[in-house]
Amino acid sequence: MTKLLEQAHSRLESMSLALFKEQTMDSIGVGLIGTGYMGKCHATAWGSVKARFSSVITPRLEMLCDADDTVARNCAQAFGFTNHSTNWCDLLDNPAVDVISITTPNGLHPEMAIEALQAGKHVWCEKPMGLTLDHASSMTTAAQLAATKGIQTQLGYNYVHNPAIIHAQKLIKDGAIGRVIHFRGQVDEDYMADPLLPWTWRCKIEDGGLGTLGDLACHLVSLAHYLVGDIAKVLADIDTAHKERPLPDSTTGEIGAVENEDMAQAVIRFKSGISGLISSSRVAWGRKSMLRIEIHGDKGMIVFDQERMNELELFQATGDRSTRGFTRILTGPEHLPYGEFCPAAGHQVGFNELKIIEAAQFLDAISGKKANWPNFEDGQKIERVIHGVSESAKRGSWIETN
Ligand code: NAD
Predict the structure, then answer these.
(1) Which numbered atom of ligand 1 lies nearest the CA of 156?
(2) How confident is the model over 112-171, as pLDDT tens digits?
(3) Which of 125, 126, 158 most suits a substitution to test ligand 1, by most atoms within 8 Å of the C-beta?
(4) Does residue 126 have its Cβ closer than 6 Å to ligand 1?
């Protein structure tokens, strides 16, 4: 990793600023690595962002890569990419590719991202950044070097781009709930609740890194940082409910060890002094995309749950006590950028639209119109929290995360 960084440093130093000027042209060449769940989501976003956000640079879908040749060829055709490859380095060598989406398993992110930045490509990488804090740190250093040449990074924290969340941030800034005094967050899914579900790369530290912390809790932390501020320390506990799972292709009943945590919870303290609680489970039967936050203020409260992603609940301690209660705010065109997708309030945007908003934000950052969040530097702060939770659980003590 150090060698990669040294190479990145020398190559970036020798590159001219002309590269950034080129990115401000009308179109930008897109490369995509990985075509699974998130790969398809990125491909859809790149393919439709210009139609929804007319002011962004036009993406040209240049090259798609997957480890499997047939999959790569079929996906390139289905999503409209000009070329395909099974070797991700081909994207780095392709001068038509300016920006690369990385949607491969977590363990592959650091090398791919650092080398892509080294090759002068903008990088939109799925979360988490890697498997370890060292990975996040190396990626951040590479991104900081690249940023000096106008090369941008972004992490796939889609939930912060929800018009409801953007509105919640505005309500907080405008003082709708007064001074923020407490944060509570919970992120639960049941995709690994069945103990007989086969073992996957996600269960192995070498390939998946953290468990529910890297998969789910990082999203919760992204919302906490976006809405309340950076988390400064954590006191945590973690557990694994299903310590073994059947190997996927075994006919003889072989099992694989689950090396990372199914559940995690932590008491947190923000840099601002605000206290809070976070918890996460990937084995919570019945929960499909529960990403629930409560932001308590001294004059009210905001509640959001991703399972009802088009609404916010707002309580304001004003007026006659006998008529006070939670207001349910359904998002509509007045909650930017909902109106880019639908002119009618309450008709709802979905998960894939969040990725399109994310793509638009990244294109605006690349063309120098507006800063994006979270880039690798912001993402490193999120990684410090999730790894801090894991470390705190091991040590049984508070861990500084800021
Ligand atoms: P997946 O298993 O569905 O897809 C991974 C893809 O990477 C597959 O197409 C696979 O063939 C490809 N791949 C693996 N090794 C490769 C290589 N060397 N070269 C080229 N392609 C290779 O996984 P997924 O669920 O899409 O997760 C991918 C990433 O997205 C993970 O980091 C995950 O944490 C993240 N993710 C983010 C969200 C979100 O809401 N932002 C949701 C799910 C997953």
Answers:
(1) 41
(2) 999 999 999 999 999 999 999 999 999 999 999 999 999 999 999 999 999 999 999 999
(3) 126
(4) yes
**Ligand 1 pocket mutation, candidates 86, 88, 103, 213, criterion most atoms within 8 A of CB:** 103
Q: Report helix angle 218-227 to 376-395, nearest 10.
A: 120
**Ligand 1 contact, 195 CB (< 6 A):** no
CA of 300 to the centre of ligand 1 (A): 40
Strand order in the sheet with 122-125: 83-85, 58-65, 27-33, 99-102, 122-125, 153-155
Which candidate, 78, 162, 88, places its Cα nearest to that of 125? Answer: 88
pLDDT, tens digit (0-9, with 9 covering 90-100), for 216-243: 999 999 999 999 999 999 999 999 999 9
169 contacts 226 by C-beta, under 8 angstroms? yes
Residue 174 DSSP label: T
Report CA-CA distances (Å) from 376 to 13, 17, 383: 20, 21, 10
Is residue 23 very low, low, confident or very high in pLDDT (cuts 50, 70, 90)?
Answer: very low
Q: Is 98 in the pocket of ligand 1 (CB under 6 A)?
A: no
Is residue 15 pLDDT above 50, yes or no? no
Antiparallel, parallel or unpaired: β 255-257 and 263-270: unpaired
Which ranges in 228-350 belong to alpha helices (H)? none
Strands (E) in 134-209, as ranges, are 153-155, 180-188
- Beta carbon of 65 within 6 Å of any ligand 1 atom: yes
Helix axis angle, 133-147 to 376-395, nearest 10°? 160
Measured between its terminal Cα atoms, the distance across the chain in Å is 23
Q: Compute the distance between CA of residue 347 and CA of residue 343 in angstroms, rounded to an integer.
A: 9
